[in-house]
Amino acid sequence: LVCLRPGAADDRAAARAELGFADDDFVVCSFGILSAPKCNDRLVDAWIDSTLARDPNCLLVFVGEIAPGRFGIALRDRIAAHPRIRITGYASAALYRRHLAAADAAVQLRGASRGESSGAFLDCLSFGLPTVANAHGSAAEVPALACLRLDDAFSNDALRQALERLRGDAGLRVALGQEARAWMEAQHGHGHIAALYRD
């Protein structure tokens, strides 16, 4: 699995300005197609129940398009009354990278897996984003120091608490981001992967 890495073009301040985020906004992103297995509806519910939903400087941005069908219709209806929750729709590679560069934190959840790994989750870690994830599938292999890990069968209240903890603890965000980058370099760095192929 080839993961994105931040480059010279991924300037945080420039990305935030281009996306219309203020300097003091706290931006949480979730990446990928919105669908039932990604638990996007549960993230919306936890956000609405949290203190972040009542903070005018907090935004939740879903970077991706909603899968068609009843799930998507219900999710749009749920979000409609909350202008600080946004959906980008289809995200080009450039728009995807700009959100990775601009975000303060990420949430990547799974409720069903066929054994695949989440490229979006690993991209978040590569960019040093403090990321909330549940211990589902291959996400359970990521050390707890490198992400804010919830139980596989997490509760909405646990998710709400994780969001509030990230918002309120800048030191935790920095520590998680540093550990995430270090783990990704150790486990997914080109040299390490090349050695695995060689061996």
Let me know the largest β-sheet.
Answer: 6 strands, parallel
* Mean pLDDT figure: 90
> Overall 3D geometry?
globular
Number of strands: 6
Helix fraction, binned, reads: 40-55%
Low-confidence runs: none
Could you tell me the strand content as a percent range?
A: 5-15%
Structural class: alpha/beta
Order of helices and strands: HEHEHEHEHEEHHH
Count of helical regions: 8
Distance between the termini: 18 Å
Strand line-up in the sheet with most strands: 3-2-1-4-5-6
- Determine Rg (CA atoms, Å): 16 Å
Question: Can you tell me about this structure?
Answer:
The longest helix is centred in the last third of the chain and has 19 residues, at 170-188. This protein has helices spanning 12-19, 40-49, 70-79, 93-102, 119-126, 156-168, 170-188, 190-198, and strands at residues 26-31, 58-63, 85-87, 105-108, 131-134, 148-150. A six-stranded parallel beta sheet has the order 3-2-1-4-5-6, sandwiched between helices. Helix 1 crosses helix 4 (93-102), helix 2 crosses helix 6 (156-168) and helix 7 (170-188) packs parallel to helix 8 (190-198). It has 199 residues and is an alpha/beta fold. The two termini are 18 Å apart.
